[in-house]
């Protein structure tokens, strides 16, 4: 696991400057709440902040033991901020404390994160996750719906906080995705958040701050993280993840500022998934209902394809429509997510205007809402593609639809 410092955070200048100022000042709040969209680096920033707080050269580090001063000793002037021995506003990356926090083995760093699976295998699951986080510099936390921060881990943590830190001046507790906790866990944490003394700093991260109780939010100093720029995600994928330029452009557009999502979608190649998704438009445009139904069934693998794959397919269609608008109204080729399909985009853009793009987008948005509801996935796909591809099945027949469903 590489040593990521506050200075290394991607595209978060405001949050980085604030956190480095906190470290340099050496005075810390009881708790911090890192909030913002998913996949923008909140968890990485929390560990980098913890690493800076525990660094041996940080401004708030525990002072080294020294002999008692004499009345006759000369007074030495304070070292300037840029002097070699001056306290830092970030982790140095070279001391023993930084080496231990990089591998999550510092005794005063506590890291909680959601896990899924059986309680009897909790220890194995935690060890496997931490090992993967250490070994893979591009590790991304991906949860099942049932993933949560377990009550037993919270109890062990609160029991440890009753003792003094082992080495550093304080303990740092990082709770990733703190919204995945039970109500009784928040109640148990509340006392520690209110009266942590001088030896504990809490760092909570969440993409859903409204799911945290107001009693927790009100006791945290909030640090907001902004969505990542598409160019930032694209540059990271090409430089750090080894993704090809065309695939990186497509992933960055599909991720919508969520680097975690881009990393999880890089295998298999997004170009192949896009081509499979766009192939559904062929029978839809031709009005071949039977062929479209067979294609929809094939895409859904006859019920084996999950709803997340269906949602991703619809998002590929939305990206295609975004590129159609850009091509039609004179955008540069560098702005296209599907740049490798520029010729086909220009051909389609001659026959599709903004009004038609808007109609199709609203159909796709309705399909996305249907996926989240209790609607048959294959019927959602068939209906959406039939309406996107051209005249909806049954439109114009007597009697007309009473709610004008097809008119957007």
UniProtKB/TrEMBL annotation:
<dbReference type="InterPro" id="IPR027417">
    <property type="entry name" value="P-loop_NTPase"/>
</dbReference>
<dbReference type="GO" id="GO:0006261">
    <property type="term" value="P:DNA-templated DNA replication"/>
</dbReference>
<dbReference type="InterPro" id="IPR050238">
    <property type="entry name" value="DNA_Rep/Repair_Clamp_Loader"/>
</dbReference>
<protein>
    <submittedName>
        <fullName>AAA family ATPase</fullName>
    </submittedName>
</protein>
<dbReference type="Pfam" id="PF13177">
    <property type="entry name" value="DNA_pol3_delta2"/>
</dbReference>
């Amino acid at each position: 696991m590489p040593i990521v410092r506050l200075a290394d955070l991607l595209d978060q200048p405001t949050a980085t400057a604030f956190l480095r100022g906190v470290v340099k000042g050496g005075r810390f709040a009881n708790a911090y709440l890192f909030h913002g969209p998913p996949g923008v680096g909140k968890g990485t920033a929390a560990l980098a902040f913890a690493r800076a707080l525990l660094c041996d050269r940080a401004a708030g580090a525990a002072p080294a033991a020294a002999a008692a001063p004499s009345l006759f000793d000369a007074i030495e002037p304070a070292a300037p901020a840029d002097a070699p021995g001056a306290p830092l506003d970030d982790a140095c990356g070279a001391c023993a404390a930084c080496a231990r926090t990089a591998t999550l083995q510092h005794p005063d760093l506590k890291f909680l994160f959601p896990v899924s699976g059986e309680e009897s295998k909790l220890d194995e699951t935690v060890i496997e996750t931490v090992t993967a986080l250490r070994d893979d510099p591009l590790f991304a936390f991906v949860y099942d719906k049932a993933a949560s921060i377990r009550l037993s881990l919270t109890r062990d943590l609160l029991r440890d906080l009753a003792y003094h830190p082992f080495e550093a001046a304080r303990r740092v507790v990082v709770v990733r995705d703190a919204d995945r906790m039970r109500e009784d866990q928040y109640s148990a944490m509340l006392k520690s958040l209110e009266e942590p003394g001088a030896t504990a700093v809490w760092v909570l991260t969440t993409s859903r701050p409204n799911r945290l109780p107001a009693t927790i939010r009100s006791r945290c100093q909030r640090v907001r993280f902004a969505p990542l720029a598409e160019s930032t995600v694209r540059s990271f994928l090409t430089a750090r993840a080894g993704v090809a330029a065309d695939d990186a452009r497509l992933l960055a557009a599909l991720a919508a500022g969520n680097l975690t999502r881009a990393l999880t979608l890089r295998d298999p190649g997004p170009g192949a998934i896009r081509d499979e998704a766009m192939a559904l438009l062929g029978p839809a445009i031709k009005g071949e209902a039977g062929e479209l139904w067979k294609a929809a069934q094939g895409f859904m693998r006859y019920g084996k394809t999950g709803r997340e794959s269906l949602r991703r397919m619809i998002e590929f269609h939305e990206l295609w429509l975004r590129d159609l608008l850009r091509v039609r109204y004179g955008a540069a080729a560098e702005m296209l997510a599907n740049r490798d399909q520029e010729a086909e985009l220009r051909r389609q853009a001659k026959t599709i205007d903004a009004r038609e793009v808007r109609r199709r987008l609203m159909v796709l948005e309705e399909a996305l809402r249907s996926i989240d509801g209790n609607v048959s996935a294959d019927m959602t796909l068939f209906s959406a593609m039939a309406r996107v591809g051209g005249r909806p099945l049954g439109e114009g027949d007597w009697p007309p639809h009473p709610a004008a469903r097809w008119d957007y």
